[in-house]
Amino acid sequence: MKRYIVFLKQVPSSTKVEIDPVTKTLKRSSAMTQTNPDDLRALQAAVDLKRKTGAEVVAVSMGPVSAEEVLREALQRGTDRAVLLSSRAFAGSDTWCTSVALAAAARKIGGYDLLFFGKMAIDGDTAQVGPEVAAQLGVPQVTQLVEIAGVGEETVTVVKKAGALLQRLEVKKPCALMVGRENCELDFPTLSGWRWAQRQELTRWDERDLGLDPSEVGLLASPTQVVSTEAPQRAKSLEWLNGAGKVMDTISALINSQNK
């Protein structure tokens, strides 16, 4: 049976998020959350292909218990089952440790043809997790995706950006695809889908279920260390300009200063 695994992340829906003064990580409990926008497009791409190929779609999210909301939305939008990776051992994981856990989940699920990732998360903007999971699993990866042109028994045909050019590639399965908001439009969720999603049981795994030692994941195992964080400060000044002549003089002065 064909199987697609979609990885989704719960991210803050506001820029007003507190930083833990000790760990220098986001205090996710201090903000409202949403499913990462690029991840929703990855989900949509998987569901669109499911309609053509009959594949099973499995949604996976790593996070606190509240990340269950992300998986309920995934079920509502068309996934067949959902897996939550949740444990105190995962707290503070950077992209590398996150990829270790997600790759372990993919191995445990097994039998996958395609792995779908959002190309970037709005709370980190690293674009590293998808490629790192692909590297952990030893499968090809496609970044800068433009289009999934077709899926065969052994390969997937894609179009991707290569600088100013476009490449059409035939990639051997299994492989990982990094999907962006420009790649597809989201279907509208339905009430019947929401009702069905609320009735489904989620699978929950911790590090022991994944065959991982707690020392392999989490803050202490993460090679990325945040030394400090600060919010940029911007100073603004306001000046009222009376008359067209004053406006033109100001614009000319700005142009001259930029040309120097």
Describe this structure in words.
The protein has 260 residues and is α/β, with parallel strands linked by helices. The protein has helices at residues 37-53, 68-76, 95-109, 129-137, 191-199, 244-259; strands at 3-8, 10-12, 33-35, 56-62, 81-85, 114-118, 141-142, 145-151, 155-162, 165-172, 175-179, 203-205. A seven-stranded parallel beta sheet has the order 7-11-6-1-4-5-12, with helices on both faces. Strands 8-9-10 form a three-stranded antiparallel beta sheet. Strands 2-3 form a two-stranded antiparallel ribbon. Strand 8 (145-151) and strand 9 (155-162) form a beta hairpin. Helix 2 (68-76) packs across helix 5 and helix 3 (95-109) packs across helix 4 (129-137). It starts with a strand and ends with a helix. 35% of the residues are buried. The mean pLDDT is 89.
Instruction: Provide the helix percentage.
Output: 25-40%
Q: Give helix and strand order, one letter per element, not per position.
A: EEEHEHEHEHEEEEEHEH
For the biggest β-sheet, the strand order reads 7-11-6-1-4-5-12
- Shape category: globular
Number of strands: 12
What's the tally of helices?
A: 6
Mean pLDDT value: 89
Q: First CA to last CA: what distance? A: 65 Å
Unreliable parts: none
Q: What does the main sheet amount to?
A: 7 strands, parallel
Oligomeric state of the chains in view: single chain
As a whole number of angstroms, the C-alpha radius of gyration is 22 Å
Structural class: alpha/beta
Q: Beta fraction of the residues?
A: 15-25%
